[in-house]
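INFO batch 0412 | record 1 of 1 | parsing
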Amino acid sequence: MPEYRQDPLTRRMVIVSEERADRPHQFDITDRPFREICPFCEGNESQTPGETAAFRDADSEPNSPGWTVRVVPNKFPAVVPSDVPQVLHDYSFSRTYGRADGMGLHEVIIDTPRHVLSIADLTPSEVSAMLTMYRLRLQTLRTDPRWKFVQIFKNVGAAAGASLPHSHSQLIAMPFVPPSLMSMLMSGDKYVRDFERCLWCERLAIERQSGERIIEETEHFIALCPFVSRFAGEIEIYPKNHESGFDQVEPALLDELAAIFHRTIVRLEKAVFWMKDPLAYNVILNVAPFRSCRHKIEDDFLPSFHWHFSILPSLARAAGFEWGTGLHINPISSEKAAKHLREAI
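INFO prediction complete | emitting tokens
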């Protein structure tokens, strides 16, 4: 059974999941074509657990070819489901050593049946289908009282933590709100109460007026390098209208979002033209929690949170100072990074 562990002093949290050590790592395999052994390629459906959801041809059967996006349970989960409802009380940790069963849900979203690595290798329509599945899974899991928060993320490339070189996303649902997110929510809520407006929305207004950190704008979305960038080339993509949950996005806007998302990754990969190997990066979908036990987050916190994507290039490793202080040293300002990215295509 995996386990959540939390330091009561720092509130730093980890998941201990020894089963994850058994994951296959195909980036080092050279003796056979990836497609022959890749469990995510079309035709290899029997190599994954049975699908939870899929977009597929009307005449195709589950767990068979004929799909465009496919969701399966993670074969090597970081957390595991439980039938015990966690809705009447907070998910509790032991007092001295914060410790609790590693209850949760861990899914893999296979973005495409084609064996490609990066979002830049996908077509805009494939990115749109991927985002549509994100929205669908969030809508579905919101109705399950066990889950208070869902994190969707992508690890692209071995340096970013991916174990398989086939474009895929992951989803982890948890029975509590992570401390770092709760702290962010409370700060945003205080700003709304103090100034009667959303901090995220106010920042976007300032960024649009300045323009120096903006990479691209469309009618409904904006891509920019955040003022406080931890990594060189760090990017965020926001909706211009205030929305706290990605499942609130109008379906008609997903094609527009997919287009700017795809172009942003293409820009990023072109901007680091000096790299010998394909760029590794992480994508994080930041959304408000579904619920909390002490109060309804829908009522209290949603006005103060703005969903967004974070794109984190793996261009440098954290070192002693970063690990010791939590402060990142970024060698490229967000203003200069945005200029390079604007000029990349």
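INFO post-check: The chain has a mean pLDDT of 87.
INFO record closed
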